[in-house]
Amino acid sequence: MYNSALVFNPSDGTSKMFSVPIVQELTSQNLQSLPERYIRSEKERPNTFPPRHLDIPIIDMGMFLRDSDLCRQKELEKLGTACQQWGFFQAVNHGIPLSLTERMKVIVREFIQLPLEEKLKYKIQEIEGYGQSFVASDDQILDWADIMSLTTQPTENKKMDFWPTKASDFIETVDQYALEIQKFGNTVLCLLSENAGLKPDHFTNMSGKMTQFMRMNYYPPCPRPDLVLGVSPHSDTGCLTVLLQDDETVGLQICKDGEWVPVQPIPGALVINIGDMLEVISNGIYKSIEHRAVTNMDRDRISIAMFLSPSGETEVGPAPELIDELHPCQYRRFIRADYLQNLYSGKLDGKKNKIEFAKIKS
Ligand code: OGA
Ligand code: NI
Questions:
Q1: DSSP-assigned letters across all residues of 205-231
Q2: Domains in the chain: boundaries
Q3: pLDDT, tens digit, 9 for 90 and up, residues 27-73
Q4: Mutate-to-test residue for ligand 1 from 241, 271, 295, highest number of ligand atoms within 8 A of CB
Q5: Is the peptide bond before 154 cis (omega within 30 degrees of 0)?
Q6: CB-based contacts of 361: which residues, under 8 Å, 6+ apart?
Q7: Residues 312-330: pLDDT tens digits?
């Protein structure tokens, strides 16, 4: 059974459609061998040796609510260092109720379990819906994942045609979660602004009216996890990504100093990472790091990524306060929509063909 993948060109509104298998359907057919289209070249395959054990920084968000200046300052420095050196951290005590994050995971699983013909009612168009994005040709190697994407904020941009109605309280739960994530994301952006020596609202203001996009990733079990990837290496394209993932199943890996390091799930925690836009606005202080997902042989995995980004008409560029003789301007200014055009016209391919287009060569 096939679903569609679309390559959308926002500049002229045209799109090209490719057929891609639904991975969940493939796995239910008791595969004897892995279809060719998923087999990665040797250099792209997941590590066969045990990855180096490194833990990404953990930030206690509760510290920012406390009166003690000392605790707050120490945690702020830790947060700043995490975003400069890792581009990733895990947030604990983030204030989003566990009942809500657990409910989010349940509704995603409920959606996955809907009959196929029900899910295909929400088939991807442009960039929203059930299917794959970043498929640019008929022979491109595919990710071992099924994806559902929705615009969640601002609410007037929501395309309700893509919002499933058969899964119980899907709409209410996602709306509520989206609000919580917006609040949380703004808090993190304000803290990062402050840490960079800027006015606390610099990042939130500079990014114009923020948009929020949700991507639900479903990684079915894979008979040969050593040959495939769940998501190809990429950096995220907004300011900030907030990822909610399964508690037990490891899948996310980040590229730390040239090595792929797995992110061990911490129950109840959220994984936060810096996206390309914040790397630009912070003039390279905060790093948008490449990451990927691997699959597992006998377990499936879900994750829910919320991308907080500037709206399309926003002009994005380094904060003038962060540019001086010692810190020359690293990126030219651009309109977010032009960056998106560049992005959606190809496959996910590390960072190179994305933010590099704005990089000022020294
Ligand atoms: C993403 C992403 C990783 C994961 O959706 O951008 O990087 O672990 N997901 O699902
Ligand atoms: Ni990502």
A1: HHT-SEEEEEEEEEE---S-TTT--SE
A2: 54-358
A3: 887 777 899 999 999 999 998 776 677 889 999 999 998 777 899 99
A4: 241
A5: yes
A6: none
A7: 999 999 999 999 999 999 9
Write down the pLDDT at residue 10. 47
Answer whether 0.90 is exceeded by the pTM: yes
Are 25 and 8 spatial neighbours (Cβ–Cβ below 8 Å)?
A: no
Residue 292, ligand 1, Cβ within 6 A: no
63-71 contacts, C-beta under 8 A, 24 or more apart: 63/93, 64/187, 64/191
Among protein residues, the one whose CA lies closest to atom 1 of ligand 1:
305
Q: How far is the CA of 274 from the centre of ligand 1 (A)?
A: 13
Q: Position 165: which residue type? A: T
Closest ligand 1 atom number to CA of residue 241: 6
Q: Whose CA is nearest to atom 6 of ligand 1?
A: 236
Spatial separation of the C-alpha atoms in residues 165 and 311, rounded to whole Å? 27
CATH architecture for residues 54-358: Sandwich (2.60)
Render pLDDT for 235-263 as a digit per residue (tens, 0 to 9). 999 999 999 999 999 999 999 998 999 99
